[in-house]
Amino acid sequence: MLTAMDARNFKQALEELRKAQTDRQVALFESPGCSNCSECRFCNHCTACHDCNYTQNSTGCVSCNHVDQCESCTNSTHLESCRRCHDSSYLTLCEDCAHCTYCYGCIGLVRAEFCILNVAYPRKEWFERVKALKAAGPGR
After folding, report:
1. Which among 4, 23, 40, 41 is least surrounded, fewest beta carbons within 10 Å?
2. Same domain? 54 vs 90
3. Judgement on whether residues 83 and 59 belong to the same structural domain of the protein
4. Residue 122 pLDDT exceeds 90
C-alpha cells in the first residue's frame, strides 16, 4: 500500500488513522469518564493520561498518583491544580516545578521544599501558612 501512496493519499490515510485512534482506551481499570488514556487505574474524567493512579480531572499526565486538576505533569504524587510539574510531591497551584516537595503557588522552582510563592519557610510555619491560605479560599 505504501508503494502507490502519494503525499495526498498519505495525509488522508494519516487523518483516518488519527480518527480511528481518537477516544481509545487501553488497559484502563475503574476509570470512568476518561478519554484517550492508557494503563490508568482508579482515575476519573482524565484526558490523554498514561500510567496514572487515582488521578482526576487531569490532562496529559504520565506516571502520576493522587493528582487533581493537573496538566502535563509527570512522575509526581499528591498534586492539585498544577501544570508541567515533574518528579514532585505535595504541590498545589504550582507551575513548571521539578523535584519539589511541599510547595504552594510556586512557579519554576527546582529542588525546593516548603515554599509559598517561591519563598522558603520553616516546615512548621509552612503548614500553618498553607492552612490559613486554604481557609481563606484562594482561587484555583
Report:
1. 4
2. no
3. no
4. yes
